[in-house]
Amino acid sequence: MIRPRDPNKFSIVHVVIVIAAVFLIGVLGAPFLSHRSHISVAAMQPAFWLLDSTWRLITIALVLAFAATACQGGIQGVGMKSGRFFWSGMLIGLGAIAVVWPLVFLGDGISVTVEKALWHHNAPQNSLLKAVQHHPSPEVLVLMTFSLCVLAPLSEELFFRGLVQSYLAQVLAHLRGHFVLPQSVGVDSRDKSSQGTIEPTDRWGAIFISSAFFALAHAEPSAFVALFLLGVALGYIYERTGNLWTDITMHSVFNGVSLFATLALHAPH
Question: Is residue 212 scored above 70 in pLDDT?
């Protein structure tokens, strides 16, 4: 059961501005990537991770700036309070990722099985984790770790959960109130008090849609199911607790374990 929390008044303009900013940085960085045959090759250069960190920092700054005016209580309203709220969020996140991880592995197994059945070959490996196998320099490894374990969880959770999921819940509540409530028995279509109220069904819809966007944004078709299930888990926990630090912790641990497990498996002997 999802517990209602204070709604955030984000708009489509906020979403579009963040996406446009990230796209612009990508266009500016295209000349660097254009002469690399694959992203895993480009990821061996410090400039790749500096570019990656730049768009993530801009995403964080934009979402926090929007939250300052669109959320009740400013940036605290998006789920980033300090003090005990921060520490409890981290502790809950550490426990939650241990529970969620088997679900993500199940999704990964489903993807591998389906891909083998349909195309008779193994799923390609994550491009960025593949770069680790080439034994990156210490500078690249530091930048990669900082981006994947700190900036990625912050930027992606602020955007996909804090901004997109919150906005979609508002949209779905509005659509339900406009198209469903007027036809309901005993409901006066002129009564606006019950329209626009976010219900659990709206929140679940927002979780599923934002999770699909989250999985698609990683551009890893073979990992779509696993990332979608991870997104659903993160979205549910965010709606349940209203604490974005919990999601950030889960995301950070997930990325960190994946990164260092790959490093351990491909360490030179």
Answer: yes
Place of tokens 């659509």: 175
Q: For Cα atoms 247, 231, 153, give the angle at the middle one, nearest 5 degrees.
A: 40
What is the SS3 assignment for the chain? CCCCCCCCCCCHHHHHHHHHHHHHHHHHHHHHHHCCCCHHHHCCCHHHHHHHHHHHHHHHHHHHHHHHHHCCCHHHHHCCCCCHHHHHHHHHHHHHHHHHHHHHHHHHHHHHHHHHHHHCCCCCCCHHHHHHCCCCCHHHHHHHHHHHHHHHHHHHHHHHHHHHHHHHHHHHHHHHHHHCHHHCCCCCCCCCCCCCCCCHHHHHHHHHHHHHHHHHHCCCHHHHHHHHHHHHHHHHHHHHHCCHHHHHHHHHHHHHHHHHHHHHHCCCC
Orientation of helix 12-34 relative to helix 166-179, angle to 10°? 140
Residue 9's pLDDT is 87
Least confident of 52-61, 106-115, 116-125, 253-262: 116-125
Tell whether pTM > 0.70: yes
In the chain, domain spans = 12-265
Q: Which residue has the higher pLDDT, 8 or 91?
A: 91
